[in-house]
Structures
1.
Amino acid sequence: MSTPATQPIITSSSAPAQPTVVRVGTRKSALAMKQAEYVVSSLQRLHPSVRFEIRGMQSLGDIDKVTALYKMGGKGLWTNELEAGLVARELDVIVHSLKDMPTVLPSGCVLACVTPREDPRDVVVVKRSLQAQYKTLADLPAGAVVGTSSVRRMAQIRRRYPRLAFKDMRGNIDTRLRKLDAEDGEYAVLILAAAGLLRMGQGGRIAQYLESRTEGGGMLHAVGQGGLGIEARADDQATLDLLKPLEDEGAMLACEAERSVMRTLEGGCSIPIGVETTWLDGDDSGKLRLTATVVNVEGTEAVDGEDVEVIKTREEAIEFGKRVAKQLTDNGAQKILDEINAEREANPNPNPWVPA
Ligand SMILES: NCc1[nH]cc(CCC(=O)O)c1CC(=O)O
């Protein structure tokens, strides 16, 4: 059979040809656009002959600012439209805040690359007019209002500082800072991710870093916090090859372990879980410590788990995450998870849960 003249000549090399245009999808928020611009400029330097185009898309979570987030389903709220575009081949990659990326991806989609991680910790931001008086959570007087929509953050802080009050706070980072600083505003502090503030050039607003060793009470961050995840189609080898050199292996392994804890525990629903991962004894030891906590909404109960293992591959990271998840369920996390799920089904929860 003769080959029609219009068909490309297939060479013996298995490497797919470089694409000429790569369409990069992202949410349209200022932070998401900044993150996509960072990824695109890094890719552009690596691959000068490829054209990278950013497509900002509004997600359901951005468009509907009224419906309580938990009623909109939680998982995938920020990413469903983008993934539909990826599957339909209208996009070639998606740049996500890893923490907003579901732990289970649509069939045919993969987490292709995790870039170097920004500081994963949560931080305290103090209202401008109170900055001279208060530097840390421990400084705050009884009844001071902490702004956060995250059950994970609220429950962990409430456990250590039961005298503080909590109030929902939604919106993009700039909106939240404006609401915090408003003269007639009721918030004393906000809890935010260091990463978002740093990327938005607002690092100067950070008053206190929260972590497991924070004096007065530890705080574990969200799964994937501070990381950027790049999603692509599993069968798009040419694009996967373009992304490979951007990967930070240490960040990828740590984030895969964190995501595995979450994936193992969550079943059908997102859950309030805090984590912390640390590479021990220098970069080359391969020894990863993973700490995790599951908290109840009231902040009265928490179940903790921790382990150290040598992790060299993605598969090992995922198995490690499963073992820490098992430790959490062995220690009683299932009771907390069942309560959260039962409450969610039974009653339109006045405290919408935001996966932050
Ligand atoms: N929940 C929203 C969200 N998703 C990603 C970030 C920025 C930090 C990051 O990359 O983890 C934020 C803001 C925040 O939690 O303060």
2.
Amino acid sequence: MSNETAPNSSNGTTIPAQTNDSDLAATFATDDKPIPKEESSLLNKILNEKLNSLNEGIVEISKQQLDPASPLYSNQTFESLRLKQPLIDALYQMGFQQPSKIQEAALPLLLCEPPQDMIAQAQSGTGKTATFLLTMLNRLDPEKKFPQCICLAPTYELARQIGEVAKKMAKNMPEIQIRYAIKGENVSRGMPIAEQIVIGTPGKMLDWVVKFRLIDPSKIICFVLDEADIMISQQGYQDQSIRLHNQIIAAAPNCQCMLFSATFSEAVFNFANQMISDPVIITVRRQDQTLPNIKQYFVRCRDRSDKYRAISNLYCSLTIASSIIFCYTRSSATWLANQLRATGRDVALLHGDMAVMERAQAVEDFKNGKYKVMITTNVCARGLDIPQVALIVNYDPPVTFEEHPQPDYDTYLHRIGRTGRFGKPGIAVNLADSDITMSFVKSFETYFGRPIEPLDDRDMDQLDKIEKETQ
Ligand SMILES: Nc1ncnc2c1ncn2[C@@H]1O[C@H](COP(=O)(O)OP(=O)(O)OP(=O)(O)O)[C@@H](O)[C@H]1O
């Protein structure tokens, strides 16, 4: 969930209004002190070497796909999963050699008759998108020129990304067409939509189905909620997603509903379970939710200026592969981007206040490698699949506000999951510039049961040791 739209979060100011905690306020406040030049750190060394090893990612991936304990493992082939041949051909063309665990577990159930509803949880970057897209593509009738599958995602960027993957998978089935129901896409009243798959954000989709009646809900055979936990629980998405679901189920009671996410809190899971009928359920134990290929660290900073020094210091490492820096608010992201740009550093900026075209351009430039660093908010925490992202920095920790600031576990998991895609090695670094931020880091460590180790940029031995452990 983007804190940008979170009900209790600050929206554009640097310090959340709800908290009086001076430590936390300091964490989010801005700082414009000059960076000491002599602060060139050994941290660069470890990260440089670690990031250079990313080229070996492919070897590691195949190793992981052979390890039964890995979420990438399968002893099945795509041929054994009831998929149509043109889809199998497309998967091989995309470089997919064998299914991942979620694909192997879910696809045979999703493709059997009668269609089965599903709530599925699987770790970030392990192939959920392909799971639901293959189901839709396999099930729809390409000869029928009207929408048969609807997929909802929380952001413009994610909807587009899902569409791009769908197009690659449908490459050998040219009759299949995909349409986006997102900001900037316009329709004319009375001009029904002919594309078989419509992917979009909830508000726009609701307009097209209910207000403009351009999509006939009785003809929908597959309904997917990606990032389903926020789609059914968070203000801003919940009303529209549930209303759409109800409309479709009322008109097409046999429509197959699929809810996918890397995170489902117990309450949201129970709600999802009531919402759809007799679903097949796939979940992941909490201790397995964070992946071992993503090594987690924290850098203890003295104060705000030390934190800015750390990020400046990290910059050389950040630009070796691609990296994403998460800030708490739009204004703190903008501030950090401006600070770095003012010192000649090149970064992309993406947040929810930007116009759609600017957002699309920022993602494109980052994906293409024009920018190696993207500074953003939680708007990019979920779903974004950019395989070359090797490093995540939590400049500000993910927090929720319920009277007091609390660690936001789900967002932590989604943020660090922007690296380590499909088994690639990744690094997540938390910058902790206050006691409360440090306590959040400890909470993330305890909650997920995975170590978040200290990085001390002055301790050579320690850095060498960490480096060996991550190889
Ligand atoms: N069977 C496969 N073989 C090889 N690569 C795969 C396979 N399945 C998916 N991938 C690749 O893995 C990456 C991550 O997949 P995907 O985006 O579907 O993850 P996800 O589970 O939806 O993650 P998130 O929870 O972050 O949204 C993508 O780049 C995708 O192309």
